Amino acid sequence: MKIFFYQVSAFVVSLILFNPPTFAADNFFLPGDAYFPTELTEGDFEALGDSKLITYSSLGGYKPSFNGYAGYGMAKLESLDDDFLTNLKRAYQHYRSIGPREAIQRHMNGKLTLVPSDSLRVLIYPKGFIETTPSLGIRYNERWMTEVMKFGHPPENVRLCCLIDDKDAVIDSWRNAERIPPLPATLPKGKLEPQTMLKEPILIQGPIVAIVLHPFPSLEDFFYPIKDNLNIIIVDSESAKEFQFDFYKLKLVQELE
Which is more confidently placed, 31 or 170? Predict the structure, then answer.
């Protein structure tokens, strides 16, 4: 029975990934998602300290369709205090010193935007996530289709909008969705419409960490963390610690000061 399930799942996933609807919505953060992805440049930090607002980014994982929206493109980080921000700046300075400098296109909040490639790719997760689930960049959201349809999209016009375009990643998301806790978030009030992007942010609550990705590896590498020299920096109010993956396990490299 399990063999049959995985065969059918792989077939369905292949259809969704490689035959997406012609008129499909662009998905941002959906209630039930495990994380909120964003990108930060040096110029963002001053405003971030005042507003605590971040913008959703697909990190180059999927192309915009420009056929409507679903989900929430802005988030306010309730627990982003001065110490958290200082440690995030430490992570930025550390990886900026080794990152490339050319500008790249990213899909951010429904628009193609030129982003300096020395920006940080940052994943906001509940604290403790990485210790139990080392694969990064997966929604782990079994309610994603229901949430997309709340914005007025019919079933035939929805798509997964995976940051990692890989059938094994989607199957892993389905298989483990029930055991992976979602990122706690309070939703703003407002009318959900398929063609209008919500400007109000969600409020991300509770203890969180910012997982800062090394600038060179692809996002897929962090789903399969088996390569050599695959590093991340885990940031919170207490510290900014760089870790290296050792075949799905984390090994402390250094604490940034």
Answer: 31
Q: Which two tokens stand for residue 145?
A: 């289709």
Of 8-22, 78-92, 130-144, the range with the highest mean pLDDT is 78-92
CB of 216 closer than 8 Å to CB of 130: no
Residues 6 or more apart from 237 whose CB is under 8 A from it?
79, 81, 83, 84, 87
SS3 assignment, position 233: strand
Task: Please state whether the predicted TM-score (pTM) of the whole model is above 0.85.
Answer: no
Distance CA 175, CA 10 (A): 12
pLDDT at residue 109, as a whole number: 53
* Contact partners, residue 199, CB within 8 Å, separation at least 6: 74
**E strand or H helix that includes residue 168:** helix 167-176
Coil/strand/helix, residue 13: helix
Beta bridge partners of 115: 104
DSSP helix/strand/coil, 89: helix
pLDDT-based confidence at residue 20 (cuts at 50, 70, 90)? very low
Sequence spans of domains, the chain? 2-255
